[in-house]
Amino acid sequence: MNNDFFQRVYEVARQIPYGKVTTYGLIAKKIGAERSARIVGYAMNVSEAFEDIPAHRVVNRKGVLTGKLHFDGTNLMQQLLESEGIEIENNTIKNLNDHLWFP
Predict the structure, then answer these.
(1) Residue 1: pLDDT band by 50, 70, 90 thresholds?
(2) Which site from 19, 79, 93, 102 is most exposed, i.e. has the minimal number of CB atoms within 10 Å?
(3) CB 5 within 8 A of CB 43
(4) Do residues 33 and 39 touch, judged by C-beta distance below 8 A?
(5) Which of 3-12, 23-32, 33-42, 69-78 has the least mean pLDDT?
(6) CA-wise closest residue to 79 among 50, 97, 56, 59
(7) Interior angle at CA 10, CA 46 and CA 15, nearest 5
């Protein structure tokens, strides 16, 4: 994927409101690349170079914190989400639909 794809992903990710999450697939759909959810994941995994991208707010379609291994510290992704009022149980967002943001 080219840099333009990643930039379009980041543009959407920057808009995710505090206390909300979205999925790799919803971001892919928003940028017109519906079958590219996995590539959105790759973009989020390397987004730490940009401080203004809330990568912790992007999860898989079931609400699982699949990207947590790419954060410093064992539970940083979970801690960031919990600090925004999102409950996590077994690495999964409880009541995903209550927190889901559709770009």
Answers:
(1) low
(2) 102
(3) yes
(4) yes
(5) 69-78
(6) 56
(7) 135
Distance set, CA 8 to CA 2, 11, 19, 30 (Å): 10, 5, 22, 9
Instruction: Give every CB contact of residue 93 below 8 A, 6+ residues apart in sequence.
Output: 21, 59, 63, 64, 65, 81, 86, 87, 99
Question: SS in 3 state form for 71-84?
Answer: CCCCCHHHHHHHHC
Per-residue pLDDT, 72: 81
pLDDT at 7: 95
Helices (H), ranges, 31-85: 37-45, 76-83
Spatial neighbors of 23 by CB under 8 A, at least 6 apart, are 37, 58, 59, 60, 61, 100
CA-to-CA distance for 4 and 18, rounded, in angstroms?
25
